[in-house]
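Continuing from the previous page of notes. For each protein in this section, the sequence appears first, followed by its structure tokens. Read the first protein now.
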Amino acid sequence: MRLLIVDGEKGISEFLAHSLAGVGYQVECVGTGEEALAKLAADQFDLLILELTLPDIDGLRLLEKVRNRKGDIPVIVLSGRAAVEERVRGLELGADDYMVKPFALIELQARIRAVLRRSKPNQDRLQVADLILDCVRRRVSRGGHQIDLAPKEFDILEYLMRNASHHLSRTQIVQHVWERDYDGLTNIVDVYIRHLRSKVDDSHPVRLIQTVRGIGYTIEPREAAQPSRVG
């Protein structure tokens, strides 16, 4: 998941970027409204975190511009402007959530997850390469052959497929599948991934479940390495 932070206070944006990168998000920061608009025009982001006090433009005006140009991107306002009128105005202009500084990092992470969940279309059928997941019947098949999964295996696979090609941390997977913040569960993600790979990938030349070194996992097609031949 790619996040763009727009905040003129470099210290705060760098702290947020470091903290959110630590739980698996890919984060970029800009300090002005013009930089934000240029970034949004040139690249794709899954969420915008916006401070209203910027050096070149009022954040509410920037929010209007974002909604006119990139109407579908989720926006969380994270601002020191705490007046009720400001919060109401921000929500009316299209912010998906509004948090006031100072804030608790764990609450921001929870709100990011909630906004991203709401922004995702509730597809009944997901597909990556020849892997098909039926969300309603909770059935999985690959290459036309049914795969039997345990409930948590299915939930993890569904989360990976809904975020195909995005890098998901073990913490993000725990928070989504087990719906709790508990570092002690992150190791069990590796166990479930091993089980999933044995069922989804081991008998196929194209591997789908990939390890992202230092972060966690993603799902995308990749040719399996071929064994070297001697002689």
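Done with the first. The second protein uses the same format. Note its length before scrolling.
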Amino acid sequence: MLLAASISFLGNRSDNFTRPAWQVFPDMDDQDKYLPQRTSSFFDDGRADRPVPNGAVHRGNELDIKNVFASQFSAEQFGDDTKSIALNTGLKTDGDPYEGFPIDVNEENLTLGQDKYTLYCAVCHGVSGDGNGPTKAFNLVAASFFDTARAYSAPGKPEGGIFKVLTEGVGGGATGMAAFNDRLSPKERWAVILYIRALQKTRVPAANLSSLPSDLANTLTNLKPEPSIQN
């Protein structure tokens, strides 16, 4: 009786059915989803794979796309030139942090960097980059971009080093920060760095005042803080 019941329950496993077989423990073996590089009757082009939306952050092994797919693959963002490598990795061809910018230093990218900085960075680092953001009231210490270690010139961190911090974040400690590789594209990260450099340029050491035009040096010397607003 057990043998007959088992055969009746399982049936002939070589039979073809028009409907999916009933499973006692499906364990998500069969899912209603599109698989990569398969066809689709839903989309007009018949592909299950969809084009990447503009502005999407590149993830996964795309930086190694020539080894993954084909050596003759060519795309500007995955080029072998120095700037393309720096754009995606923050490194030079020898593996050292890139110095300078692999993107155009222009008003458009500076504005882009300001927008992203205001959205993601100012809450901790402050609007001016001095580390006095709103989170400081909760004893969360953020780095000031005017510290010697982060100054524009040596021994400051090169631009590629800042890119690494934006990409991977800083774990632990009072100045730990989140990684932004899932929120900022490589170009946007470089734009933020460009804006940080612009912020750093807004402060002039007293020793360098003599190198500025006299009218500008006098204006900076005579600057006074605005009076605080009393409630």
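What the second structure shows: Residues 226-231 have pLDDT under 50 and may be disordered. The helical segments are 2-10, 65-68, 82-89, 107-125, 159-168, 186-200, 214-221. We return to this in next week's lecture.
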